[in-house]
Amino acid sequence: MVVASTRLSRLATRNLNTLPHAAMRVLGRLDELGQARISELAKADRCSQPTMSNLVQRLEEQGWVRRASDPADSRASLISLTDKGLAELRSARHQAGADLATRLGQLPATDLATLESAVAVIQKLLTLEPLEASPR
After folding, report:
1. Is 80 exceeded by the pLDDT of residue 12?
2. Interatomic CA distance for residues 102 and 94, integer angstroms
3. R_g of the chain, CA atoms, integer Å
4. CB 67 within 8 A of CB 60
């Protein structure tokens, strides 16, 4: 299931004209979580802090995110989505959805009904509390 969902996500974003996949992930994360430190974004994206810093810098140059001092720690910055970044993210999501809708239109109605049910189950899974990590 994880492999299939990852491949579906890649398929949906493969033909985006404006937004690189990594940028879409970070903008999406900021849309979901609100402002965050670079270290939090790196952890959520499972990349190094320097990699995330470089990506955030590129997003900032595009005007898609802004950096502000963290009032709790003057050494850290809080990254947030700008209106321009949110518009870019929404446009990319719309384009990805339209591309996927074209493919979905090729499926029989019974498959579409099955997918609708599966999406409802996935949405429930996303709201469950995370399980405690078991010791190795």
Report:
1. no
2. 12
3. 17
4. yes
User: What token pair was written down for 5?
Assistant: 């969902």
Structure-block tokens of residue 97: 């959805």
Residue-averaged pLDDT of the chain: 88
Rounded to the nearest 10 degrees, how much is the dihedral formed by the CA atoms of 9, 15, 16, 19? 80
| Tens of pLDDT, residues 37-83 | 999 999 988 999 999 999 999 999 999 999 999 888 888 899 999 99
- Write out pLDDT tens, residues 88-100: 999 989 988 888 8
- Where b means 16+ CB within 10 Å and e means fewer, 42-62 reads bebeebeeeebbebbeebeee
- Contacts for 56 with CB less than 8 Å, ≥ 6 apart: 26, 38, 41, 65, 67, 79
The counts of H helices and E strands in the chain are 6, 3
Amino acid present at 83:
D
Tokens of 109: 């109605």
d(C-alpha 41, C-alpha 5), whole Å: 21
Contact 70, 55 (CB under 8 A): no
